[in-house]
Every structure is written in structure tokens, then in C-alpha cells.
Amino acid sequence: MADTTDSDVLIVGGGPAGLSAGIFTARAGLETTIVDDGGSLLRRNAHLENFPGFPAGVNSRLLLDMMAAQAEHAGCDRHEGAVTDLQSTDQGFRAETASGESLTTDVVVAATKNTVDYLADIDGVEIKHRGKDFVETDTRGRTGVPGLYAAGRLAEQPYQTIIVAGHGASVGVAVVEDSDVPFLPRLGRPRGVLHGSWSRGPARMRGDRRCGAKTPGNRVTGCDERILRRATYSSTHPAPECRRGVGSYLDTARESRRSRRA
Q: Which residue intervals make up region (Disordered) (predicted)?
């Protein structure tokens, strides 16, 4: 019997759009599964420019690997394979992969560039044929089917990596906003992070004098937003992985400069 995986959100496609969407849904507390067939366009390119944060450009495969690592760090469960069929159910959706795996989910984010075959059995999806196939959506990736979204190139966004990644993030936030998960859009964090749901770890930081009193159970209330924000993004950052990635990036940048001088 085929294995079955249940999740709140199923993202079909592991390129920049799908990974960006997953980072936001997973960090908001939604159980997120990403199915990736390895076909992202970035895998075919050697070097990427015009992506913020990399003045000399960046190795495309390295960037995609770093995005995948960030999605996993956020809580995404990544599966290798291809979704071949998607069906609506009373509870949401059921997807089948080429390997025979079955996945059930409340929400689907389709981020498969121009591949739409697996959507054929979903009533209400409007496919546009303009040389390549696209899915009709609103500006936030919502289709005509409740719970089904499309992100990135599949939603007819320009092919540039930064644009499809940004659209994926927008779709991910739309999924969270449309769900019942309390969400703090400004910081991309679930509600409660700045409102007394932390253990005493951040309160022990230097400079925490703005924090209010501790409540029973070592909870902290009334903490200054800037302190908690700093604690959040310093304490949860995957520093070793980040350093390795930055080191690889710098090596690539140096090699690029040497080649230009030669």
C-alpha cells in the first residue's frame, strides 16, 4: 500500500517560488510539504546576477540549495519526486506522485513553471495557453478553486528569479492570511512572538531592561519589540550553514574577478 503524507500545505515545485512560499507557511506554523522534481530552471544555469545581496552575482545552484536549506530550517518537509495527479476531496486535496506516494492536504500551491498536467482533473482551474501554459490567478496567487494557489512563473510572473521568489513569498503570506493561523504580517511571525509567548531565554539577554515582569511558568510579558525581534532572528539563524554558504559565495566571487582580470 502506498505511503500517505498529511499536511496543511502541499507545495508542488521546489524552485524559488515554491521554496519562498514554503518558508512563510512553515514559519507561520502550517505543516508544509514541498515536492520537488529537481527541474528548476536555476539548476540549468551556472551564474545568476541581479539578485539582491550578491553584488558579484551568485552560483545559481548554490543559491537554490541555500533556499532549500532555509525552507527546511523553517520547518518544510521536502520530498523528491513529481506530482502526477491532483484530486479534490471533501477534506481538501489528494496528490499522487510518480513513485506512488499519496499526499493529502488542505491547501495546494502549484509552483511548477509551466507544467499543468496534474491539474487536469480539478474543476474550476482556468488554464491559459499562450505558447506556454499558465494558471489564471489574482495578484496573490488565488485560483478559482478554494485552497488552490499558483505561484511564480506558473502564475504568469516574469521569469527573473527575484520576481518569482517574491511572488512565491506573497502567495505564502496569502495562504497564511486565508487560514485560521494568527499572523503578524510586518515581521512574518505568528502572533504571540511579541506578546508574551516566549520562554525566558530572550529575557536573559543584555539590554532587556525594557522587558516587563515574568509571569508564572517563566513567561515574559510586555517586552520591548526591538529586543525580541533581535532575539528572534539571532537565536534561530542557522549560522554554521549560513557561514558555509557565504564562504562558497565569496570563493565564487573571487574566481569571477580573477577571470575578468585575465
A: 198-218, 234-262
| Same domain as 129, residue 202 | no
Residue 158 and residue 208 share a domain: no
> How confident is the model at residue 213, as a pLDDT?
40
Domain extent, residue 219, equals 192-262
Is the domain of 88 the same as that of 197? Answer: no
* pLDDT reading at 228 higher than 70: no
Distance CA 192, CA 84 (A): 39
- With 0.85 as the threshold, say if the pTM is over it: no
Q: Give the number of other CB atoms < 10 A from CB of residue 172.
A: 32
> Quick one: 229 and 162 in the same domain?
no
State residue 231's pLDDT score. 40
Report the DSSP beta bridge partners of residue 93: 88, 105
The pLDDT tens digits for 134-173 are: 999 999 999 999 999 999 999 999 989 999 999 999 999 9
Q: How many domains does the chain have?
A: 2
Q: Please name which of 5, 20, 3, 6 lies closest in space to residue 151, comparing C-alpha atoms.
A: 20
